[in-house]
Design brief:
By secondary structure, this protein is an alpha+beta fold. A two-stranded antiparallel ribbon has the order 1-2. The protein contains three helices and two strands. Helix 1 crosses helix 2 and helix 1 crosses helix 3. The longest helix has 14 residues. The radius of gyration is 16 Å and the shape is globular.
């Protein structure tokens, strides 16, 4: 969308859109460190971090990715779904509510 399209935004109101992001994890320890830092900065205790994303030596990759990629509020939008899953089949897991809305993700089964 370009700035000159702003006058036409109302035409898309109420329509659903999907945004896809595909990642290859090359360094699980670096991923864990970034997720742990974000969680600690958000006020989680180290114990909560370990319960949520596992230890650095054996990180819960999907949970680390969810911690780092969960979208913040986007003006004019309502988040319907948030999903993190491995390329293989996955089973859905309900995460704790964040910012007043439930956040959904999937982890490999």
């Amino acid at each position: 969308m370009n700035l000159h399209d702003i006058g036409h935004v109302s035409e898309t109101a109420g329509k659903a859109f999907t945004v896809t992001l595909t990642l290859n994890v090359e360094d699980a320890r670096a991923l864990w460190s970034a997720a742990a830092d974000k969680a600690l900065q958000a006020g989680m205790t180290l114990s909560d971090v370990l319960d949520t994303i596992g230890p650095r030596e054996d990180p819960a990759i999907a949970d680390c990715l969810a911690m780092l990629t969960a979208p913040s509020a986007i003006a004019g939008c309502v988040l319907d779904d948030f999903d993190v899953s491995a390329a293989a089949s996955a089973e859905p897991v309900q995460l704790p509510r964040g910012a007043g809305r439930p956040v959904l993700m999937s982890v490999a089964g």
